[in-house]
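User: Hello, can you help with two protein structures?

Assistant: Certainly.
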Amino acid sequence: MTFRLLARRIHHFLEIYGLDGQKFVTSVRNTPHFLRTLSAYRTQSQSADRFQLRAKELAPILHEFSEPAGSATGHYFYQDLWAARKVYAAQPATHLDIGSRIDGFVTHLLTFMAVTVIDIRPLHSNLAGLTFLQADATDLAGIPDNSVESLSSLHAVEHFGLGRYGDPVAPAACFGAMRALARVLKPGGKLYFSVPVGIERVAFNAHRVFAPSTVRETFADLELVSFAAVDDNDCFHADATSQPLDSAHFACGLYEFTKK
C-alpha cells in the first residue's frame, strides 16, 4: 500500500466520525494569517465606519485563503458536465434520471429541460421542472419496456444493495438495476451511465468497483456509442477505449449507450 493510499484511508475513517484531520492541520497553520489580517483591519478601520469590529461577531475562516478558486476536477465534475452536454446536444423531449446528484448533473439539466428523478431517499423540493419519485430503482417496476427516450444514472448503481442508503441488502442489486435500465430504454434512445471502474471489488458498505468489461457485458443488449473516463490521477479522457482501466484503483467509467 502506498503512503498516498494509506493517507486517504486514514482521512476517510476520520471523516466517518466527523473529524477532518487535514482541515484541522491547515486551520492551525493558517491561524497567524487570520490574526495578522484581524490586526490590520482593526488598525485601518475608523470609529465612524459602518462595519465596526465586535468580538462576538468574529467568524474565523482559517483555510480558504490558501485554497484555489474552486474545483474543476474529480469524478462528479467531469461526469456531470460530460452527460449534461450530451443531453443538451440530443435535445430529448423528456429525461429520466436514477439516483444522480441533484446539486450537480440534475441541476445542469434543469437549466434547459424538465427532469424526472427516482431515488430511494426522500427529497423535499418544489423546484419548477423537477419531478421526484421516491422508489427503489433496482427493477424500475411500473416503467414499461422500451419507453424512456433519455435516461441517466451517474455514480449511483455501485451503491445498490449495500444498505448504505437504507435500501435492502442484495448483493446482485447492481446487476438488476443495469438490466432494468436496458429494459426501459426506448429503441434509438440514449442511456448515460457511470460507475467506478478498475480492479473489481466491493468496499462495503461504500461502493463497488466494476471491471470495465463487466459493465459492457451486463449491457450486452445495448450498443456502446461512446466511452469516456476519469483515471486515477483525475485526468479526463473523452475517448477512453485505449486506457488501461482494468488495473485502475478507483477510476470512473462514463458510458453512452443506445438501443437499436
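That covers the first. Now for the second protein you mentioned:
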Amino acid sequence: MMALPDAAGEALLEVEHLTMRFGGLVAVNELSFVARRREITAIIGPNGAGKTTVFNCLTGFYTPTVGRLALRHPRRTYFLERMDDFRIAQFAGVARTFQNIRLFPRMSVLENLIVAQHNTLMAASLFSVAGLFGLARYRHAERAAIERARYWLEKTGLTPFADDDAGSLPYGLQRRLEIVRAMCIEPVLLCLDEPAAGLNPRESAELNRLLLAIRAEHGIGVLLIEHDMSVVMGISDHIVVLDHGSLIADGTPDEVRSDPKVIRAYLGEEEDELPGDVAADFGRNHGEGQA
C-alpha cells in the first residue's frame, strides 16, 4: 500500500466562507474550518444542520454559492469548488461513502473492490488497447489492483466472503465493505456520511477500530458525519458543530461536549454541562467505543 509522509498536524482541507443557497433557503452559511492530515474531523449537529450539504459541496454534487474549498497535496492545491465531481475523486483524491449503502449488490465483494479502481485500470489499459492485447503495463496494473483489494479484504476480515455477492452480506459487513472500497482509490481525504447508522454496539466498536487504523497506518484525513456520539467522541481529534447551517463550535471533543451553544442546539436549553443520560450518548469517557 502507498506510504504517505509523516505530516501530522498539517492542514489538509481548508474550508473558507462556504455558503450554499437553494433559492431563499440558506443550507450552509459562511462556514469556515480546517481539517488536518492524519486526523479524524467530525461534523455534527441536529437534523437539518447542513452536514450532508457540506459533503455534497466538497465532493462536487453541489457547486457552492460562495466559498473556497482548498485541498492541499504536498506539491499542489486543488480548489474543489472549481472541479467536476469525477475529477475530485480521480485527481484530488477525495473518496466518499453515503448515508444509504451504495454497493454493487450483484457483484462479488472482490469485484466491488476492483471496480473502485476502474480509473487506474483504464489508464493502464490505454482505454482498452493494452488490456485487449495483454500488454505488460496492464498486467502489472491488474495485479496491483487485485493485491490492493486482497489487502483490504484481509484488513477487515472479509476474505471468507470474497466471492459472495456484496448484497448478500450482513448489514454491518456491507458498511465495512463500502468504507474499504473507498480506500481502494488511495484517497488523501475520506468522507464518511453516517458510517455507524444501523450498526449495533459491537459493530460500532469494530468501525472505530477500523477508522483509527486507517488514520494511523495510511496517514490520510478522515471527515466524518455521525449521530452516534460514542463513535464521534471515541475517535475524533477535532469536531465541527453546525446548527441551521452555521458554525456554533469548533474544537476538541472535551471542548465541544461542554460548550453551552452545543448543549442548547441539542437540548433546547443551556446547562453548565450535559445531563447524565445525554452525557452518556456523548461518550463522556473519551475512550468509549474503542474497545
